[in-house]
Amino acid sequence: MELIRGIHNIRSQHFGCVLTIGNFDGVHLGHAEVLKGLLIDAKANNLPSTVMLFEPQPQEFFAKSNAPARLTRLRDKLLLLSELGIERVICISFNQQFANMHAEQFVSDILIKKLGVKALTVGDDFRFGKQRQGNFDLLVSMGKQASMDVKSTASFRQLNARVSSTLIREALAAGDLSTAKVMLGHNYAISGRVIHGWKRGRELGFRTANIALKRQVCPVNGVFAVQATIAGKQVYGVANIGNKPTFNGTRALLEVHLFDFAQDIYGQFMHVELIKKLRDEKKFETLTQLTAQIATDVAAAKQCFGLN
């Protein structure tokens, strides 16, 4: 899959494509329906299937720390899109200049002149351009003049509700991993590079591999039974996602205690699937209480995987 970073990197050889546009946060089953339409059009027109997405996501740009929790980092999003068969992704830097672009200019200059979009597939609630003035009707109107076919994919429904990133966030926040999995089509996961932590887990007798969640607001919090992929191996474990309140932490962190695993994995990429929520994060008055609770969490996670 080809990745184009920024409008300035769209070249003449990228002219002529079928396109869909959106955040694709989570690349859930609702998104998959949109992408099915894209792939059908790509095959019919013998043109590359292309997805346009944004970094940061628009709500993150406008609302900053008040933006909804992101489900998927860019790296994971690209991997999921590639697995679905998408040939090309255009990642637009969402900055003030782009936010000020009028909807008509976006369609004329980017979609028609730069990309030569032959067919465009968008969700039924798609809005774009300065102050979200662009909508489906505008795309259809301008598309007719440029021989660009515009179609809307009907909202995908499952569990008697529309599949959306918002509903998945709500399920994750409630600890309902099974409902989130049904809507995502896969286990919810967090990925990133293993960093050096405070080494407190080692002192307590439970070494952890840590992933910083950086600026993103995490949609989950608490202690989970997990399955991690690291150094080419799949390993079970127990993870804490939160701010380490017992140590008065302020930085969101994913800490994973891997069962029967002692390799040095600092700097390596780790993929962590959340399988079952065990409890909420809690502040303990003493390290003895914390250590006892961790031992209980380890036992519960091992029981979840049939390891006891």
UniProtKB/TrEMBL annotation:
Function: Catalyzes the phosphorylation of riboflavin to FMN followed by the adenylation of FMN to FAD.
Class of the enzyme per the UniProt entry, highest EC level: transferase
Domain spans labelled Riboflavin kinase: 183-306
Keyword line: ATP-binding, FAD, Flavoprotein, FMN, Kinase, Multifunctional enzyme, Nucleotide-binding, Nucleotidyltransferase, Transferase
Family recorded in the similarity comment: Belongs to the ribF family.
Xref: CDD domains: FAD_synthetase_N
Pathway listed: Cofactor biosynthesis; FMN biosynthesis; FMN from riboflavin (ATP route): step 1/1; Cofactor biosynthesis; FAD biosynthesis; FAD from FMN: step 1/1
UniProt-listed PANTHER family: RIBOFLAVIN KINASE (PTHR22749:SF6), RIBOFLAVIN KINASE/FMN ADENYLYLTRANSFERASE (PTHR22749)
A GO molecular function held by the record: riboflavin kinase activity
EC number from the UniProt entry: 2.7.1.26, 2.7.7.2
Pfam families given in the database record: FAD_syn (PF06574), Flavokinase (PF01687)
Phylogenetic placement of the source organism: Bacteria, Pseudomonadati, Pseudomonadota, Gammaproteobacteria, Alteromonadales
Any one Gene Ontology BP term: FAD biosynthetic process
Identification of the protein by name: Riboflavin biosynthesis protein
Gene3D superfamilies associated with the record: HUPs, Riboflavin kinase-like
UniProt KW Nucleotidyltransferase keyword: yes
Reaction it catalyzes: riboflavin + ATP = FMN + ADP + H(+); FMN + ATP + H(+) = FAD + diphosphate
Superkingdom, natural source: Bacteria
